TrEMBL record:
Transmembrane portions of the chain: none
UniProt source species: Frondihabitans sucicola
Every Hydantoinase A/oxoprolinase domain range: 194-318
InterPro entries: ATPase_NBD (IPR043129), Hydant_A_N (IPR008040), Hydantoinase_A (IPR002821), Oxoprolinase-like (IPR045079)
Protein name (Swiss-Prot/TrEMBL): Hydantoinase/oxoprolinase family protein
Domain Hydantoinase/oxoprolinase N-terminal: 7-175
SUPFAM superfamilies hit by this protein: Actin-like ATPase domain
Pfam families found in the cross-reference section: Hydant_A_N (PF05378), Hydantoinase_A (PF01968)
Top-level taxon: Bacteria
């Protein structure tokens, strides 16, 4: 390992952007900085990331060439769901006969409250056959006319045979839509739960796709060429390209990173972990040196999003919201 090698972590929160530097050889914390998250800047949150990186490198006397690894965490997906700051979604259900009856029931997903007084913004369309080109184009025309940019494609048993979802998804991508196919989100059975999970991914996809571009541009502007990894809600990491495809995996990634730090640095074996940010507060429990991982609940319905068992509450505003990761099978 080269001398002066650094590992850097950046967390973009609703209020502050934090950056820390760790010696890559000893894993010792050698510097940290905090700047306001630059929501209102023309360059968005990218500006705050650049400022934080420059301040951090200057404070430890290192250069961008010394950075060998960069980890990025963000609460934007969590905050978007807590605050209802989401995009409308076009939901295409594929099927005839009994399958058609099942997919038509998915209209009811629009009844799920994403936050108090605001429901999931879903426009449902039924497609009988996945190879019906004119019907597909008609649906996409109606979505475009409604200002919809994000589309979910769902079909019963697509985890076994994804050809139908793939064909419709390809047509939507050719038209410039951001697309989530349910079999790309999870390989588990359960049409309704799989589709709910895909819809949650889709409602934050436009915002998080733009965020990924901003993050990459800020890293490039800072002169850092080290690989960039993004925190996942289960405590792992993923590439920025994967975040562009499945941003839902970053929901609750903030507490995942915090708990990981407590386990590694503080050697916590049993306790309650509380992390309060500018927009939300996360609460989790450590038992026997581990944090439980469960499927998340959203709007009173379970999903296939596997994350740490965390309760997140929206505080500091004029309302209270909740995102409960405790699974309830239905």
């Amino acid at each position: 390992m080269k001398p002066n090698a650094l590992r850097i972590g950046i967390d973009v929160g609703g209020t502050f952007t934090d950056a820390v530097a760790i010696d890559a050889g000893t894993l010792r914390l050698i510097g940290q900085t905090k700047v306001p998250t630059s929501h209102d800047h023309p360059d968005g949150v990218a500006h705050g990331i650049v400022i934080a990186l420059h301040d951090l490198l200057a404070s430890v006397g290192r250069s961008a060439e010394d950075v060998v690894f960069l980890a990025h965490g963000t609460t934007q997906a969590t905050n978007a769901l807590l605050e209802g700051d989401v995009a409308p979604v076009g939901l295409i259900g594929i099927g005839t006969g009994l399958s058609g009856s099942f997919v038509k029931r998915l209209r009811s997903l629009g009844k799920i409250e994403i936050t108090e007084g605001k429901k999931l913004p879903i426009v449902f369309e039924h497609l009988r056959e996945a190879d019906d080109g004119p019907a597909i184009e008609g649906i996409l025309d109606r979505f475009a006319a409604s200002g919809i940019a994000s589309v979910v494609v769902t079909e019963p048993f697509s985890v076994d045979d994804a050809l139908g979802e793939d064909a419709v998804a390809a047509a939507a991508r050719r038209r410039g839509f951001l697309v989530t196919s349910t079999h790309d989100i999870t390989s588990l059975y359960g049409l309704s739960k799989r589709t709910r999970t895909a819809v949650l991914n889709a409602v934050i996809l436009p915002k998080m796709f733009a965020t990924a571009d901003l993050v990459q541009s800020s890293i490039d502007a800072a002169g850092i060429t080290a690989p960039l990894m993004v925190m996942r809600c289960d405590g792992g990491v993923m590439s920025l390209d994967e975040m562009r495809r499945r941003p839902l995996l970053t929901v609750l990634s903030g507490p995942a990173a915090g708990v990981a730090g407590a386990l590694m640095q503080e050697k916590v074996s049993d306790g309650i972990f509380l992390e309060t940010g500018g927009t939300s507060t996360d609460i989790s429990v450590i038992r026997r040196g581990k944090v439980a991982v469960k499927y998340t609940d959203f709007g009173g319905s379970s999903t296939f999003l596997s994350a740490l068992d965390v309760r997140t509450v929206g505080v500091g505003g004029d309302r209270w919201s909740g995102f409960d990761s405790t699974a309830r099978e239905r």
